[in-house]
Write a structure and sequence with these properties.
This protein has a seven-stranded mixed sheet, with helices on both faces. The protein contains eleven helices and 18 strands. It folds into two domains: 129 residues, translation initiation factor eif-2b, domain 1 (Four Helix Bundle (Hemerythrin (Met), subunit A)); 223 residues, Rossmann fold. It is globular. It has 363 residues and is of the alpha/beta class. Bound molecules: 5-S-methyl-1-O-phosphono-5-thio-D-ribulose (MRU).
Length: 363
């Protein structure tokens, strides 16, 4: 996607494979800041502290972390230590384990002297495949939006949660890919952007992305979605996911479940954009997915921009009383029965085990 007319990705290998450049997403939307990561440890920190975030991007970042490790020390022991460190950086999105397993398989198949080159090649392949996968999700999701457009004269109203946009992937985004493709095709649409407390990925990242692409959008409080659905102002909900269990239960950013319940009650279709790298066929259902518990400070404090004369500064302020405890589960599970369909790179599939296994060609 483009920022200020310039094509940009949230991650890229630097020329000469000397490091990995990422957008530090903590600074958005107030500043577009780039950071260079030069070790697997630095990548693990960037994932844990959410400079990079979003399931597919975490996977790609971890793959580049392995490439950095293989450049420094490609012994079996060093690679295993890097896998352990990267794997522990965030627990919920399965793309992390998926990418690390793929990297490990590739690297252990060749002698140590060849591992650095193989690791960079494989990490580049994972990144490029992510771009193609997300483009395909957009192609498969586009007809869902076109079908709504065919029934009404006003713009199609899509509601999305968190950021499943290009910042959360290597390009296109997952949930945003059909939106970007519809916008490019001239289909009139408007996106309701859930602010997505407590970290506000919707308000700060999705809104920024859509603005850069010229897609009409409105940021709403997380609590507003149900009301808008009751008022007939949402045609379709389209969200991303961090892990989907074999039975089609969907794990995504906290608050997704409430939107699915409201959508079900109001008869609004609820679709989930799912690259198949986010599918975990080893887990029978969503209740077994590990839910990340993040710091209460993400809840008790909020940061934002303050114009101080001509100088723009980002400040953090406290919201809650001193001494109040804060709980911060970062993801929730939407049962498969509330999901209208999974939009994958292979097509749209029902959120049910038999259909998913057929799609994947897995008995
Ligand atoms: O905690 P985050 O910001 O990494 O959570 C991201 C989400 O929940 C996204 O919806 C999900 O990863 C899909 S990204 C294409």
């Amino acid at each position: 996607m483009k920022v200020g007319g310039r094509p940009l990705r949230p991650i890229r290998a630097l020329p000469g494979r000397l490091g990995v450049e990422v957008i530090d997403q903590r600074a958005l939307p107030h500043a577009l800041r780039f950071e260079t990561l030069c070790s697997a440890q630095a990548v693990a920190t960037a994932i844990r502290e959410m400079w990079v975030r979003g399931a597919p991007l975490i996977g790609a970042a971890a793959a580049y972390g392995m490439a950095l490790q293989a450049t420094q020390d490609a012994s079996d022991a060093a690679l295993q230590a890097a896998v352990t460190r990267l794997q522990s950086s965030r627990p919920t999105a399965v793309n992390l384990a998926w990418a690390l397993q793929r990297m490990q398989r590739r690297l252990l198949a060749v002698p140590p002297a060849q591992r650095a080159q193989a690791a960079w090649d494989e990490a580049d392949a994972i990144a490029e495949e992510d771009v193609q996968v997300n483009a395909a999700i957009g192609r498969h999701g586009l007809p869902l939006l076109q079908a709504v457009a065919a029934r009404k004269s006003d713009p199609v109203n899509v509601l999305t949660h968190c950021n499943a946009g290009w910042l959360a992937t290597v390009d296109w985004g997952t949930a945003t890919s059909p939106i970007y493709q519809a916008h490019a095709a001239g289909l009139p649409l408007h996106v309701w952007v859930d602010e997505t407390r407590p970290r506000n990925q919707g308000a700060s990242l999705t809104a920024w992305e859509l603005g850069q692409a010229g897609v009409p959008h409105t940021v709403i409080a997380d609590n507003a979605g149900g009301h808008l659905m009751q008022q007939g102002q949402v045609d379709l909900v389209l969200v991303g996911c961090d892990r989907v269990a074999a039975n089609g239960d969907v794990c995504n950013k906290i608050g997704t479940y409430l939107k699915a319940l409201a959508a079900h009650d109001c008869g609004v279709p609820f679709f989930v954009a799912m690259p198949t790298s986010t599918l975990d066929l080893d887990l029978a259902d969503g209740q077994r997915i590990p839910i990340e518990q993040r710091s209460g400070r993400e809840l008790t404090h909020v940061s934002g921009r303050r114009a101080n004369g001509g100088v723009v500064e980002v400040v953090e302020v406290q919201l809650t009383p001193d001494g109040s405890a804060a709980g911060n589960p970062a993801f929730d599970i939407t049962p498969a029965r509330l999901v209208s369909g999974l939009v994958t790179e292979r097509g749209v599939v029902t959120a049910d085990e038999a259909a998913i296994r057929r799609l994947m060609g897995t008995p």
